[in-house]
Amino acid sequence: MEAKRLMKVTYQDLKKGIRLNAYADAVIWSEDPSPTLAGLRFGGYAEVVRGLTDAIYGGATIEIEDVDGSLLTLKSLSKQYHREVSHEGLYAEATLIAEDEIQESSKSQDEKSRKHAQKDDLFDDDVPQQDIPAHICYIFCHPGNEDELFQAIDQKSYVPMIPEYQDYVLAELKRRRILRPLRVRSLYQELEAWKLCCEAKDQNLVKVMEDGLKQGKIKIPGAAPGPSLLDGVHSVTDYLNTFGVAVAERIKKLFVPLFDPATEPLSEEVLDINEYIRAHAGYSLYDAQLAVAESIKRKLGQSKVALIVAGCGTGKTKIGSVAVAAAGLQSHQISAGHSKTFSIVLCPAHVTKKWVREIEESIPNTFAAVVRSISEFDLLYKLYEQGSRNCFAIISKEKARDGYMRAPAVIFRKWNREGLNIARPHANEEMPAAGFSAFRHVFCCPDCGAVIMENVSKDGVSYCVPAGPRFFRSENRENHKCKICGSSLWTALNPTLWNQQTQWAKLGSYGFVFRPLLNEYREDIPNEAIRDRMTKLANCPDIPFPIRGAYRTFPLSSYIKRAYKGKIFALIADELHQYNNNSGQGDAMQELLSAAKKVVGMTATLVNRYSSGLFYLLYRIAPRRMCQDGKPYRDSRKFDTEYGVIQNIYEEREGAYNSNRRTVRSKKGSRLKPGVSPLVYTRFLLDCTAFLNLTDMGRSCLSMRRSQCRLRWRRKCGRNTSGLKIR
User: Cα angle vertex 401, ends 396, 403, to 5°?
Assistant: First the structure.
């Protein structure tokens, strides 16, 4: 800013001997009822700007000297400004904008009514909300832009407005002095400022709208005099009877199916595979099954993920394999040189052999095999590369995630300047904390020898101290790597070597404990079972404590993601609902999903009654949509609040007799109840999911009849069952 053209801003306190001067290029104020500051942008030395900003925010009176020498005295609104301060060396600039304020009469009344209210009641739908108090809103816009001014009024008020009301509303608000202009003096940027004075419940704005409707100056779009169709609607049934046909037509126009079997023919790929099934299995797929396979094939041609939600007995195995094979046979695949494809099926262990049988009898020029290890997967892919046929690797969801554990790799030694005989990146990274003895043992990095430090809080103050044994109970972001050299502080757990050492032990979900310092865990024991196991460790300090569930193997899903990403054509995830939790098997499905080009998920029960069951599954198959919907991954509660059913439990305590306190209502807790909003289907699933039920195939299914027939027991069986009683 150039000091010659700017307006001088002065604040002084004669009693305290304070005088602050700065220079402004824009000032906004109101003259009704007295000159009051509404906005100011000024600059100067950083200390002066900071002090002047605090003075104005505290309600001080300032003087502004214009370029022509005129003096303007303005009062400030105490603690009602939005402040922004930017620094550039010794110089700083500050901007103060008046925030919307609640008038004192309404403010004092609301404070009395909310004095004993509980904070949790604000999020409870059963608690009646407080009335809208009288308030003053400040609006800033470009000069002469009435569209921008009307939009700002619509956002600030609680009265619904439409663009057709713009001319009438603006003229009437100005005439009634509800919308008042503010004085603006700006040297560089042209702007316009207004003050909107709203009564309690926006009664004055409501009055403006009612008068306009009565006088015919504004009209509700679509409103016509005479009887309405809604006059005879008194229930949901009446509404559907009256508007059901119109609603159905609207839904058909909004949700157009990707494939309509009534009007569109099946593709040649699906028909060829169906003929192969007829020739080798002796039967063909039903029309409904072929329609779902065609829909999934078309969806895979447009996007990566497609889902099949079909009831038990509808042939999901056949449908999924046919859809993937048909997608692989599309012309764009063959023209790109992919005359064969390699796909993966992730399914429960007890149906792996069934998948091999179904694929080999359903898909031409294809072979399948069950894979249980990394070496078997490499061998199968090598056979696929050497041959000319398609290949499906069948992996059980249990084997996909089996892998090694990780254990702490830190070294427990005395703190010293030399440490390990390894070059250090910094010279003075191991200064001991206050009150720390240099002869005490500490945990150190296995690579650089630096002491591992952790942050602890005590009495509201954060300290950095040498890490204790509880710091390494489980691997997390804080203890994953050394902050000095960046080396990992955890290593693969070898069960053979682990059963020979006596320093560390793993106690189930509690995590790892350092046996020489078991006393450090006394304050952190969750239950008696862990306490008993710690007592056993303390009584037998020299006996190794074996670990359960540790294997010398790398996770198969992680290996496929690293070594075969881009080489996998499709992933078929059978029983998709089993990957809907924050679990290792769910993570394995996610890794295979990221390695494959196309994904087909199949399940009969997509929703397990609770909204939480869908949260992680939707983040695995549609993470972009979840982010666009504003549902962060680390806050599943926000998803449950919008799409689930949450039961809030409150406790009320009556006030004592002749007490001046009202009934106290406090929240005791909340829990998730069964129920999922239909919005989940329309927002996340409807455009990528094909639904199938046995009733859709009912016309083609064979009719069944129940009958009874007598069977004679064999003589030996009759003797053995003669003592049984039939109840």
Answer: 130
Structural tokens at position 62:
């300032």
Do 309 and 692 meet the contact criterion of CB atoms below 8 Å apart? yes
Is 21 in a helix, a strand, or coil? strand
pTM: 0.57
Angle formed by the axes of helices 556-563 and 584-595, nearest 10° = 20
Residue 695 to residue 312: CA distance in whole angstroms: 12
Residue recorded with tokens 């992996």: 395
**Listed residue (633, 635, 629) closest to 679, CA to CA:** 629
Q: In degrees rounded to 5, what are phi and psi of residue 44?
A: 165, -160
* Sequence-distant (≥ 6) Cβ neighbours of residue 172 within 8 angstroms: 208, 211, 212
In this structure, the number of other CB atoms found within 10 A of the CB of residue 370 comes to 17
Residue of 575, 603, 608, 576 whose CA lies nearest to 676: 608
How many CB atoms neighbour CB 274 within 10 A? 20
Of 382, 317, 200, 335, nearest to 573 (Cα)? 317
Q: 287-302 and 316-328 are packed helices; what angle lies between their axes, rounded to 10 degrees?
A: 40
Quick check: helix, strand or coil at residue 719? helix
Instruction: Decide: residue 562, CB within 10 A, 0-12 exposed, 13-18 middle, 19+ buried.
Output: exposed
What's the rounded Cα separation, in Å, for the pair 534 and 522? 9
**CA–CA dist 196, 210 (Å, integer):** 19
Q: What is the pLDDT of residues 250-303, one digit of tens each?
A: 888 877 888 888 889 999 999 999 999 999 888 889 899 999 999 999 999 889
At 37, give phi and psi (nearest 5°): -70, 130
Find residue 7's DSSP bridge partners. 24
Mean pLDDT of 384-392: 92
Task: Give the residue-averaged pLDDT of 152-179.
Answer: 89
Concatenating the DSSP letter of every residue in 474-501 gives S--TTTSB-TTT--BSEEE--HHHHTT-
Pair 599, 327: CB distance under 8 Å: no
Banded model confidence at residue 344, pLDDT cuts 50, 70, 90: very high
